[in-house]
Design goal:
- By secondary structure, the chain is an alpha+beta fold.
- The protein has helices at residues 2-17, 20-40, 44-60, 66-69, 74-81, 86-92, 97-103, 106-116, 346-356, and strands at 123-127, 137-139, 144-146, 163-168, 171-176, 181-186, 191-196, 204-211, 217-225, 228-235, 240-245, 260-262, 265-270, 275-280, 286-288, 297-304, 312-320, 323-332, 338-343, 363-368, 371-376, 382-386, 391-395, 410-414.
- The chain contains nine helices and 24 strands.
- Strand 21 and strand 22 (382-386) form a beta hairpin.
- Helix 2 (20-40) runs antiparallel to helix 5 (74-81).
- Residues 1-15 and 17-60 have low confidence and may be disordered.
């Protein structure tokens, strides 16, 4: 009986949140969609009286009988809820356990996205050491800077001071210098977890947060201790760290470049002679790819996309004596060979090289929603390649950035996700 009251209360919440014309529209759309499927199953006569009665109630009042709504078929219920505004969906989570689990499920969010379009924008987020809690956001859907306040009030007291290190699938990973810990959180649903580092003091580099297909996440980092190095991997499913042997050449490469996740492995590039190495997150084994690299490379950065097909790319400078004359894009082809797929226009290349002063350790790359972003630690603008079109573009400096910020620019991909839980 209590469960029935909870469900009825949830339905009352929906009916009061939606206007009469909105309810009629979604019900007629749901009737049209569901009728055809029920008719083919031979159940049309069974469900039609329920829908008809609901429609008659809608003409007389916006608050229809919740007892009738609670008997709607599950498919029709999801179809109607998919038309609700995003703010109403958030509030709906507190009405009953069923709606909370439904709204947070990946299957419903997939249906919601296909019905209304993407419920969220996607952003490029800028972090700078001179400002702990201010993160300028560039909306890559609208192509404009957004003045949005990110919620940090729910974080634990130990997170009074933090540094953003990595992002993945709507999750952020911060370091908490005062407590020798890491903080993983989803700012959208306000979930967080504090993770103690393996030991203290713990100096690490190349930290990479990776969302795994099983709904969890892993954190990779390298640690140098005395003359040896180790790789540490945190698994959110078991809430523990594991230690593996390190890969020495990586420790002398770009400290701003994270690993690129592809087919269960993290990919890195080594200094000259340039090569691509991968670390298996499950087995902890290292491997160097046995592929021929292009000649006259001055720097290399590896990037992977997040599509179902998945491809591995690398961005590299071409020149001599450490001076790049051009920058090109390659992708992994058949047999593991690298195939050139694009070149940066000459004028844009000159600007990039003047920005980094040919100090390529400042250059890092990452993937964001079909774009390969090329950033410089000393420059507030972003160069990106739209991979599907093979076109290159600059994103100008955020207008709110102080002119005195001359270095320390670290960019991240931020694609909000409801069901990415810390």
């Amino acid at each position: 009986m209590e469960a029935q009251y909870a469900t009825d209360g949830a339905w009352l919440f929906i009916l009061r949140a939606a206007k009469e014309d909105f309810v009629k529209l979604t019900m007629f759309k749901g009737l049209h969609t569901t009728s055809s499927s029920l008719k083919s199953a031979g159940k049309m006569k069974l469900e039609r009286p329920i829908i008809t009665k609901s429609l008659k109630s809608a003409k007389g009042s916006t608050e229809m009988d919740p007892g009738i709504w609670s008997r709607l078929p599950h498919e029709l219920l999801e179809h109607i809820l998919a038309f609700l505004p995003l703010k109403t969906l958030f509030n709906l989570r507190s009405t009953c356990k069923h709606f909370k689990s439904l709204v947070l499920s990946p299957s419903f969010m997939s249906k919601y996205s296909s019905t209304t379009g993407s419920p969220f924008s996607s952003f490029l987020l800028l972090s700078h050491p001179q400002c702990y809690s201010c993160f300028p956001l560039y909306d890559t859907v609208l192509g404009a800077w957004r003045n949005l306040a990110l919620p940090f009030s729910f974080l634990p007291p130990s997170a009074s001071q933090f540094n953003l290190l990595s992002s993945s699938n709507g999750l952020f990973c911060f370091s908490l210098p005062k407590s020798c810990s890491l903080l993983v959180c989803n700012l959208l649903v306000k979930s967080s977890r504090v993770i103690k580092l393996p030991f203290f003091p713990f100096a690490f580099e190349l930290l990479t947060l990776v969302s795994t297909p099983d709904g969890g996440y892993k954190i990779f980092m390298l640690c140098s201790k005395s003359s040896s190095s180790y790789a540490f991997v945190y698994d959110s499913k078991v809430d523990s760290w594991r230690r593996y042997d390190g890969f020495q050449p990586l420790l002398n490469d770009n400290s701003h470049q994270e690993g690129s996740y592809f087919n269960g492995c993290l990919y890195f590039t080594t200094p000259e002679p340039f090569s691509v190495a991968c670390f298996d997150l499950e087995s902890g084994k290292w491997e160097t790819l046995n592929t021929e690299m292009p000649g006259e490379l001055t720097f290399v950065r590896v990037v992977s996309d997040d599509s179902d097909e998945g491809k591995l790319y690398f961005v590299g400078g071409i020149g001599r004596n450490g001076i790049s004359r051009s920058m090109r894009l390659w992708e992994s082809g058949n047999g593991g060979n690298w195939e050139e797929v694009g070149r940066l226009p000459e004028l844009m290349c000159r600007k990039l090289m003047s920005v980094c002063y040919h100090n390529y350790e400042h250059v890092y790359c990452f993937w964001h929603q079909g774009m390969i972003c090329v950033c410089c630690h000393t420059w507030p603008e972003i160069l990106y390649c739209k991979v599907s079109r093979r076109t290159w573009h600059w994103i100008s400096k955020c207008p709110s950035l102080p002119d005195k910020w001359s270095c320390g620019f670290k960019w991240f991909s931020f694609v909000p996700e409801l069901y990415a839980l810390a």
